[in-house]
Design goal:
By secondary structure, this protein is an alpha/beta fold. It is built from 15 helices and 19 strands. The chain has four domains: about 120 residues, PAS domain (Beta-Lactamase); about 80 residues, Helix Hairpins (Orthogonal Bundle); about 160 residues, Heat Shock Protein 90, CATH 3.30.565; about 120 residues, 3-Layer(aba) Sandwich (Rossmann fold). It is elongated.
């Protein structure tokens, strides 16, 4: 049978957690030697007689906790407290401490017995949980903003389609030397600027219609460097450091150029006194899936496009909102807040990822991950098509916006087409059933009340089996896909478009022998 001293010694030696006894001056008198060495790296003789402050990584923690817990009249806390300890080798780590007041036989407080546990793994798990929760909230916020901007872009697109179309109709009806021409040109330029802003909104919401091609990323960068040299101020030196292999990626050239321009202009604003802009590429291989914000990247080979500046850098509170539309640190009137939101949308649309590293006073680096693809480089050139010729076919316009419906009817009739109209899918089906002649082409809005365009087109194609279909929409691509317009062969036009673009697309479909139907 062990006596009290032997029992206490056995208890101390067998403890998995560190147990220490300190007096009222917080001087160590007894420790569990095995756990002391495992947790702190010390031997008992190195700490007994020393202040427990030896263990604390930061003096302010020692003082603060002493004032809170270790003073005359202090009571045993209900829960452990946390602080950072420093091992003998200098490593700093988190611990969880539960002190208990020790009284002598007369009831006087003579010190504290503390149980100390390594909390490193738990703190790490908590930080990971907070990070994932933050990413989840950020994902929800960005998704909600994407839906909002997509809806706003839809309304803008309808307005701009009507505006651009009517301006072109007015231009056709006035003489080339008319004093109204400068005013018409100014309206056209304003509409074009508004159209570009709308495209940025669509890009942020991952909804812009793109033409991806298999190309060498380095080639796009070299071509874009000419453009950047005209945009960037002279006191900024633009350098490139491109990997030699020139990996192929499947991208839309205009979108990659937009990424480079937006990041370069953003960097320029951070280097008003001059500096260096470095554009570099490198290849990486991800063995496991990675997540940047809500961008989930599958394992595989990627080419990383990095754009670095030597500017002012950004604090954490700016980084947290960096890709939100309309967020800007610039003065009013000097930025739309859509540049980086556009970059975000493009990267996500390309199944890539984006990382940002920034230190205040030392600059920023944006790293864009593009999946590497195999196969031959696409060298096809996209040329501006010739002006469309008049037609005499029958076109059925189905559009719920009366301004756009009436505008497109005038445009088509001015070029010789016979035109039928309807304001929704149900009305269109009823009119189609009563029509005795041929309908060559159905031009139908995708998202409409009562019945969406895709469903209406399917029913109308059962009545007119040879009818071609052109879908149009001012909504985002995600929404149009939800409504069925997702087949690879379906004809689609994104609003806003000019009269010439509409006429050319219609002529192209009617003249094609393999044009898609619904």
């Amino acid at each position: 049978m062990l006596d009290n001293q032997e029992l206490l010694a056995t208890f101390f030696e067998g403890a998995r957690d560190l147990i220490i006894f300190i007096d009222n001056e917080r001087v160590i008198h007894q420790v569990s030697s095995k756990s002391l060495h495992q947790l702190m790296g010390y031997k008992p003789e190195e700490v007994i007689g020393q202040s427990v402050g030896l263990f604390y990584a930061f003096d302010e923690d020692f003082v603060r906790l002493g004032e809170k817990y270790y003073h005359p009249g202090a009571k045993t806390p209900d829960e452990p407290y946390e602080c950072r300890y420093k091992r003998k080798n200098g490593d700093i780590f988190w611990v969880e401490i539960l002190p208990s007041v020790v009284h002598d036989r007369a009831g006087r407080a003579v010190g504290w017995m503390s149980i100390i546990r390594d909390a490193t793994q738990r703190k790490k798990s908590e930080e990971e949980s907070k990070k994932l929760q933050s990413q989840f909230y950020q994902s929800q916020k960005m998704d909600a903003l994407g839906r909002l901007t997509g809806g706003v872009a839809h309304d803008f697109n309808n307005l701009l389609t009507a505006m651009i179309g009517h301006v072109e109709l007015v231009r056709m009806k006035v003489q080339s030397d008319s004093p109204l021409i400068p005013h018409i040109d100014e309206i056209s330029r304003a509409a074009d600027r508004a159209s570009k802003l709308t495209r940025q909104l669509l890009t942020f919401s991952r909804s812009q219609v793109v033409i991806p091609r298999v190309l060498h990323l380095n080639m796009i960068i070299e071509e874009s460097r000419k453009l950047l040299s005209r945009l960037i101020q002279e006191n900024i030196e633009v350098k490139t450091k491109l990997n030699s292999s020139g990996p192929r990626v499947r991208v839309d050239v205009g979108q990659v150029e937009q990424i480079l321009v937006n990041l370069a202009i953003n960097a320029q604003d951070a280097m008003l006194s001059g500096g260096e802009l470095m554009i570099a590429t490198r290849e990486v291989e991800l063995n496991t899936a990675r997540r940047f914000m809500e961008m989930e990247m599958a394992p595989g080979r990627y080419v990383v496009l990095s754009v670095s500046d030597t500017g002012t850098g950004m604090p954490r509170e700016v980084l947290e909102h960096l890709f939100e539309p309309f967020f800007t640190t610039k003065e009013p009137g000097k930025g739309t807040g859509l540049g980086l939101a556009t970059v975000y949308g493009i990267v996500k649309q390309m199944a890539g990822g984006i990382e940002v590293e920034s230190t205040v006073g030392k600059g920023s680096t944006f790293s864009i991950y593009f999946p590497i693809v195999e196969g031959h480089t696409d060298t096809e050139e996209f040329r501006i098509p010739p002006a469309p010729e008049p037609g005499n076919e029958t076109v059925f316009l189905v559009e719920d916006d009366p301004a756009i419906r009436n505008l497109n009817q005038q445009i088509l009739q001015s070029k010789g087409y016979r035109v039928l109209t309807a304001s929704n899918g149900i009305e269109a089906i009823e009119k189609a059933k009563g029509h005795t002649g041929k309908i060559d082409l159905l031009v139908i809005d995708v998202v409409m009340p009562k019945m969406d365009g895709y469903q209406a087109a399917l029913k109308m194609c059962q009545i007119f089996s040879d009818m071609r279909v052109l879908y149009v929409s001012g909504y985002t691509k995600d929404v149009t896909m939800e409504h069925g317009v997702q087949g690879t062969g379906l004809n689609f036009m994104q609003k806003p478009f000019t009269p010439d673009q509409l006429l050319h697309r219609i002529r192209e479909i009617l003249d094609s022998k393999s044009a898609a139907r619904a």
